[in-house]
Amino acid sequence: MTTAARVERDPRRPPEQIPVAIIGGGQAGLSVSWHLSDRGVDHVVIEAQTPMHQWADTRWDNFTLVTPNWHCRLPGYAYDGTDPDGFMTRDEVVDWLAGWLETFAPPLITHTRVTRLAHGADGGFELTLESAGEITTLSCDEVVIATGGYPIPVVPSFAGSIDTAVHQMHSEEYRNAGELPPGAVLVVGSGQSGAQIAEDLHLEGREVHLAIGNAPRVARFYRGRDAMTWLADMGLYDVPARQYPGGAAAREKTNHYVTGRDGGRDVDLRAFAREGMGLYGTLVDGQGSTLRFAPTLTASLDAADAVYNSICRDIDAHIERTGVDAPPPSRYTPVWEPDADPTELDLAAAGVTTIIWAIGYRPDYRWIEASAFDGGGRPMQTRGITAVDGLSFIGLPWMHTWGSGRFLGIDRDAGHVADVIADRTAGRGGPLRLAVGR
To answer: This protein's superkingdom (predicted)?
Structure first.
């Protein structure tokens, strides 16, 4: 195992000037730090709380990875446990990441929030930092934004019009069924978080209603292997975003729902409905105790199953091309069909006491004063590099490939961003710090 060079930094005293500042101490930002240290580039990582805190703070108790453990790779470090095809739990991921941090010494400044990024008067950038009520500034030539893909939880505008007797929360606040008020639960959203939280509540014996969107699904295991292992062999996680079949529309729909719980299995919403879970289409409005849904349930279920079977066909074609010895192919056949698409739910009559919003996140880069964003507030970047000299991003979904934003693709993305920064820093004649330890 390679260990990155150590760059010492006093965590109690943020510098006033430094060549590179990384904002965000999650696995993405720390991966860039690892590579910059390995290249001898002086830098600092500024984290508002503690390194990688979100893994412990924003995942529910029964959370598991949905990608196999062998996908877990970070700079100089990879999963080497006894279950490479299994799925680590939340606590196991936290421990694994703690083990990675023991292999190097990132120059971290913790419990410090960057509240403003602006162009400096003499070039470069000026950051405004806040820590324990104290405001300081830091000047730098390069900034890497590693604050996560989209940090602001989405809640619909009509949420405030729903009966106040109903407890509302976002998926990142959910921990377990026992912490919720007694009664039925409505989960809104069928991406990975929504589908798995609905399953968690269902397995705990809670009465569950689920409003589903257009998220697709995928087989957990197919023809003797994990489907994601097949997809990795097929190179789909390495295809650059601009070359991905189907373009942006396909990329927006790659949050396939599946689970790694209990060794991994499909998430079959039709099977849940057969066992008593209430399914609905897209939630469009709510007032008091009445919610209204678009009549999209049947179409959404059919579309998710079509993607499931399409992926199976792609794997079949790969097996045929390569001559891999594998069990025979199969297709999913629906185990339940709705009699009609429900368009209304009376929360009081159904005994619903909790709504969990699992409809995603939105970007919030208002603190960045730079022309690097599109009309939707998303960074305009290529492999993390923007047209604004010195401004880069890391850890975004589809930043470069499908693997970006996941453990599988972070190392490669971080290495590229670090290479660009190292070249630009050297080109400016800025200071490079030599590696001082391994």
So the answer is: Bacteria
Token digits for 223?
């023809």
| Other beta carbons less than 10 A from residue 170's beta carbon | 19
Q: Which residues, other chains included, contact 328 with Cβ-Cβ below 8 Å and sequence gap of 6+?
A: 223
The DSSP-derived string for 84-118 is TTS--BHHHHHHHHHHHHTT----EE-S-EEEEEE
Parallel, antiparallel or unpaired: strands 352-357 and 167-170: parallel
| Residue among 37, 57, 147, 120 nearest 396 (CA) | 147
Domain boundaries of the chain, sorted by first residue: 17-151+363-427, 152-357
CATH of domain 152-357: 3.50.50.60
Can 17-151+363-427 and 152-357 be said to share one CATH topology?
yes
User: In Å, how far are 84, 206, 212, 288, 293 from 199, measured between CA atoms?
Assistant: 24, 10, 13, 27, 21
User: For residues 169 and 64, what is the distance between their CA atoms, to the nearest angstrom?
Assistant: 21
Q: Domain 17-151+363-427: which topology?
A: FAD/NAD(P)-binding domain (3.50.50)
List, for the chain, all residue ranges whose pLDDT scores fall below the cut of 70. Answer: 1-14, 149, 244-254, 429-438
What per-residue confidence (pLDDT) applies to 100?
A: 97
Q: Output phi, psi for 273, to 5 deg.
A: -65, -40
Pick the closest to residue 218 from 266, 173, 180 (CA basis): 266
225 vs 93: CA distance, rounded Å: 22
What pLDDT is stored for residue 61 in this prediction?
97
Half-sphere exposure of residue 61: CA atoms within 13 angstroms, side-chain side: 8
* Residue 436: per-residue pLDDT: 31
CA 187/CA 215 separation, integer angstroms: 14
What order do you get walking across the sheet with 344-346 strand by strand?
283-287, 290-293, 344-346
Query: Residue 205: left if φ>0, alpha if ψ -120 to 50, beta else—which one?
Result: left
Which pairs with CB-CB distance under 8 Å and at least 24 residues apart come from 317-322? 318/230, 318/233, 318/234, 319/223
Distance CA 379, CA 363 (A): 9
3-state secondary structure at position 204: coil
CA distance 131 to 153: 24
- The pTM of the full predicted model, rounded to 2 decimals, is 0.91
- The number of residues making up the chain comes to 438
pLDDT for 427 equals: 83
